[in-house]
Amino acid sequence: MKFSDDTTMRLYRQTVEDFGLYSGRELTDSEMENLREAAGQMSAKMRAVRIVSASSVTKGDLEQRLVHKGEDPKQAKEAVRWMADLDLLDDAEVARQVVRKCVSRGYGPTRAKQMLYEKKVPRQYWEEALADYPDMQEQIADFLRGRLGDDPDEKDMKRAIDAALRRGHNYSQIRRALNSLRLDHEDYF
Question: Over the stretch 160-175, which tens digit does the pLDDT of each residue have?
Answer without folding.
Answer: 999 999 999 999 999 9
